[in-house]
Amino acid sequence: MDADVDVAVIGGGVLGCFAARNLRRFNLRVQVVEREFELCGGITKANTGIVYSGYDTKPGSLKARLTLRASRAFPQLCRELSVPFRPTGSLMTAAGPRATGVLQKKYATGLALGVPGLVLLAPPQIAALAPGLAPGVSAALYSPGMGAVNPWELGLAAADNAQANGAVFRTATAVSAMERRPEGYRLALSDNTILRARAVVNAAGLSAGQVSELLMPPYFQIRPTRGDYIILDPRAQAPGCIIQQEPEQKGKGATIVPTVDGNLLLGTSDEAVTRPGWTTTEASGLDFVARSALAILPGLDLSLTIRTFAALRPNPYWVKTVDGAVKLSTRSIEDFLIDEPEDYPGFVNLAGIKTPGLTCADEIGLYVAERLAERLGAVPNRKFDPSREAGPRFGRLRPEEQMTSPPATIVCRCQKVTEDEVRQAIRAPLPATTIDGVKRRAGCGMGRCQGGYCTEHVLRLLAEEQGLPVGALCKEQEGSWVVCAKP
Ligand SMILES: Cc1cc2nc3c(=O)[nH]c(=O)nc-3n(C[C@H](O)[C@H](O)[C@H](O)COP(=O)(O)OP(=O)(O)OC[C@H]3O[C@@H](n4cnc5c(N)ncnc54)[C@H](O)[C@@H]3O)c2cc1C
Predict the structure, then answer these.
(1) Ligand 1 binding pocket includes 201 (Cβ within 6 Å)
(2) Residue 486: what pLDDT?
(3) CA nearest to 30, candidates 376, 457, 409
(4) pLDDT tens digits, 50-66
(5) Residue 106 class from Cβ within 10 Å (0-12 exposed, 13-18 middle, 19+ buried)?
(6) Ligand 1 binding pocket includes 199 (Cβ within 6 Å)
């Protein structure tokens, strides 16, 4: 059905979900349009999940301002949205004069920015904080304010909260065309309906450039690069804090993150994307990740690998059209590109929001919402409730709490996800409708068997809850049966 709203948000990743949440702090009718079946399946599902403190940002930039604010507010945000935050702190290590010099600069920048608690450590202090580090680490920058969060859990919590406050979410619906109208914008959607909006937030992640060009001439372009990751089982010996490496040779160093669910995440390579939509891992990238992680933590047992994945970085470049030819700036835009082009009032491009976009998602949402509220003359929504309740997950309870919990049927043995939790994910106001959706909402399939045991159970529950035969949720693709979980 055609609809009229104050603000249309294109894209249901973490940025779109937090934009919607913050827009509902004002009396604005908000609709989020997401082209996939599930929210938070783009960049939001494949990143490092670190909550940054801001010492690595450029003084005076919007990124620096928002990261500092976001870092301070993060523990409270997680409490408000019932999302686990693991405040491990972070060590950035150096093993040579060049890298040590870089750390000293970062330390000075961090102090100037007012990042709390930064300490530049010498080898004996480093060994006490992170035993098991390779010999030869000459300095480390410790930032106690950093930690880990599950990125899609955070995004989905923002979506739940936005929806509870009145935002409408439409999934499996893409914005396919846009026009400027005197009263705002007219969006044509893939389900052949029209969405009229007084303002628009383009939070389309890697597709932000293409979405912007549905309306206006190109002025930025996203050129992705690929990064590979390795996930280890919780049995891997995790360091007590996040470890990032400033390599002695310029380039990417290892990042080692103890996640909120006790796994160890190793990242990441940085390679050009030579095929469109390239999201598979590459042996060269994985080899780089493994070697750089072992160079810092030689005791890591990589046989505990349970999964590998690749991520795409949305690097934004300025575009100029010279004599009909499109030219890109030589360097990618370093600051957050949050832009309302002069000729398109009320249309905000959130373009190429790279690290630390996850950390800053709520602050970016608030920044955009305040500007659009002012433009649209909106007043604060007195009924806005920032909090979201979520029951504890059985698998995250301490063993003694699990022992005293009511009896439950376990669907996912690795992560100890109960049948009731899977049903709740499928029945949620923003329901999971696919295997991946249930995985992101309930956590099943995330453990060492990677869904080998639970996929069939989850499929049966999805079919049962939707009143369909299991076969209706599968389709034949290239000669084999795949689960699409949505007819
Ligand atoms: C490798 C990597 C590591 C990172 N690590 C960190 C980190 O440790 N800490 C941190 O703070 N930040 C990190 N970030 C940054 C953070 O992950 C991103 O800033 C954030 O996830 C971006 O979210 P998004 O909502 O913009 O994009 P997405 O999650 O991709 O969402 C965009 C959505 O738009 C939808 N869409 C696209 N086109 C259309 C259309 N036409 N109609 C409707 N919907 C559409 C897509 O389907 C998608 O769901 C990292 C990023 C990368 C790439």
Answers:
(1) no
(2) 58
(3) 376
(4) 999 999 999 999 999 99
(5) buried
(6) no
What b/e readout covers 163-175, taking b as 16+ CB neighbours within 10 angstroms? Answer: bbbbbebbbebbb
Ligand 1 contacts CB of residue 34 (under 6 A): yes
The Å distance, Cα 475 to ligand 1 centre, comes to: 28
Check if 13 has its Cβ closer than 6 Å to any atom of ligand 1: yes
From 47, 143, 215, the mutation candidate for ligand 1 (largest count of ligand atoms within 8 A of CB) is: 47
Q: Which domains does the chain have, with CATH numbers?
A: 3-45+152-222+315-376 (3.50.50.60), 84-147+224-310 (3.30.9.10), 399-483 (1.10.10.1100)
- Please confirm whether the linkage preceding 356 is cis (ω < 30° from 0): yes
Q: Which residue has the tokens 């700036």?
A: 329
Expressed in angstroms and rounded, the spacing between residue 182 Cα and the centre of ligand 1 is 31
Closest by CA to 36, choosing from 318, 444, 349, 440, is 440
pLDDT (mean) for 379-406: 94
Q: Is 354 in the pocket of ligand 1 (CB under 6 A)?
A: yes
pLDDT tens-digit series, residues 120-137:
999 889 988 888 999 889
Q: Which two tokens stand for residue 87?
A: 């405040």
Confidence grade of residue 483 (pLDDT, cut at 50, 70, 90): low
pLDDT for 487 beyond 60:
no
Span from the CA of 143 to the centroid of ligand 1 (angstroms): 25
Query: Contact, 413 vs 453, CB < 8 A?
Result: yes
Give the atom of ligand 1 at the shortest distance from the alpha carbon of 314.
53
197 in contact with ligand 1, CB cutoff 6 A: no
Q: What is the mean pLDDT of the chain?
A: 94
pTM value > 0.85: yes
Residues in the chain: 487
Residue 182 CB-half CA count within 13 A: 0
State which amino acid sits at residue 251. Answer: G
By C-alpha distance, which of 99, 357, 85, 358 is closest to 242? Answer: 85
Statement: residue 12 has pLDDT above 60 = yes
Which atom of ligand 1 is nearest the CA belonging to 358?
11
For residue 335, which amino acid is it?
A: D
